Amino acid sequence: MFFISDTMAGAAPEILKAVEAVNDGLFLGYEGDPVCEEMKAQFAKIFETEVSVFLVATGTASNALALSVMTPPYGAVFAHEGAHINVDECGAPEFYTQGTKLAAIKGANGKLTCEGVRAALTNFPKGVVHRMQPGGLSLSQATELGTIYTVDEINALSEFAQSHGMATHMDGARFANALVALGCSPAEMTWRAGVDVLSFGATKNGALMAEAVVFFNQDLVGDFAYRQKRGGHLFSKSRFSAGQFLGYFKDDLWLKLARRSNDLAGRLEAGLMELPGYELACPVQTNQVFVTMSRELVLRWQEAGAQFYIWSGDPAQERQLVRLVCSWKTTDEQVDQLLEVARG
Ligand SMILES: Cc1ncc(COP(=O)(O)O)c(C=O)c1O
User: Fold this and answer.
1) Residue 330 beta carbon below 6 angstroms from any ligand 1 atom
2) Among the listed residues 139, 143, 120, 124, the one whose alpha carbon sits nearest the alpha carbon of residue 72
3) Would you say the pTM of this structure is higher than 0.85?
4) In the chain, what percentage of residues exceed pLDDT 90?
5) What is 253-343's CATH superfamily?
């Protein structure tokens, strides 16, 4: 019963095959190979527009490098207080941006609102040399709580950011999960809604390690290639990263895998909500379930061998917030087994 993270799952066999398929032959590296060319063409097709795509190893690098071209070092990037860039990247955004400040904003269900950003902006008045200047806005789709922004919400936030001279970044570590949940096109969820640059993650949804920075706003690209190289993220054997994306997109594998993990989380939610003692902390919209339960129930789950994160942190608290993540590899049996334990 492994519900700690979607990163616990291995790589999808189709992606392993796609990597093997690009193994033969001798090619130039450093994104100068035909596999990368094909991968970049596929991104353009999927997003129905011109894109600039750069491969990186991790979601953290993707976010931090993307932010580095959006904001000056004296800029502030507005993000939710629970955003991965704010709490889980060991200062990588500050490091790559050479000192940008992250302005952490509260918001229900892990989401930013224009009102929240507006209030935070008052601390960063434009033209006041003593204050950091509005540098950019970053939203996570899906959020760290597994919730999603609607297309209208993304539009409103990006318009608001633009009206204050800021570009919009989307952390899409779980992009596919959000996309299938919304049921819109990749273009609708991104550039048509005003997103300038996207951290596109595939690792959590069946790849080995495949992340990409995708620019829709070509004016932002500038010196990005140098930043990617200087940051140590220009792969010599880039075809193996690109090959993963070819396998990921082929026959809509990425959408199928994301649907699978979302559906399982939905099943888990439905099962838990039939039982006394469990309360949802936020709506279940993708592949993560956040539920509160008593310490006694947490202990029972742990003793039964269930693996999951206690999100609230404080083990002394009577009611605990628990995160349960389903992956493409989670089985129906694992969900049934956990529900059995939950029933007691
Ligand atoms: C929302 C979000 N963004 C970014 C990342 C970063 O990914 P990585 O661990 O590959 O740096 C994660 C990883 O958990 C995440 O959940």
Assistant:
1) no
2) 124
3) yes
4) 96
5) Aspartate Aminotransferase, domain 1 (3.90.1150.10)
